[in-house]
Amino acid sequence: MALCEQEQSGWASRLLESLDDSITPTGSVVVWLRNNLGSLNLRLNSEFALSGLCIEPAMSTNVSGIYSEMYFCHYFSKSANKLLGSAQWDWTEIRGDEQGSIRRVSKNEISKTYRLLAKDCQENLARLTEWFNGLNGSLPTQILYGERFGGSNFDLLPPPSNYYSECNFIWNK
Hints:
By secondary structure, the chain is mainly alpha-helical. The protein contains five helices and six strands. The chain has one domain. It has helices spanning 5-18, 26-35, 37-44, 61-85, 107-134; strands at residues 49-51, 54-56, 93-95, 101-103, 142-145, 167-170. Helix 1 packs across helix 2 (26-35) and helix 4 packs antiparallel against helix 5.
């Protein structure tokens, strides 16, 4: 079954929900998913393509997990760059008298955090890609993402029928 508009929109919503991002439009994530199939194909030596507005052939849970990780890396890098371009404050805290203090976090500090997230994401993506390509097309296990952002377990696409068989837990710290 191909991933058409409705499935892509649902997938994009789950990606944004896992990032706790209510600002980014779902449509922009759908466009990213459609436009970056070439990068996925190069990474996994696969042949995904757009047929109309549908992504074909159907993606396995493993492939969709790796593609989702690619989006997370893009998101963190984009967020870091956006904040670096608009960094304004040099200070992080002003001490007052008995009234207390005012603490304001510098956009540079937030950007550093996003850069660390992007670096960790790239390392995880490299591990996932190496694992996937090392299996030479035989996929006895699937990737189960859990508690990555402190939330409960979530799936990025509907699970296959053998969902509760052997699983590799990634980012479950």
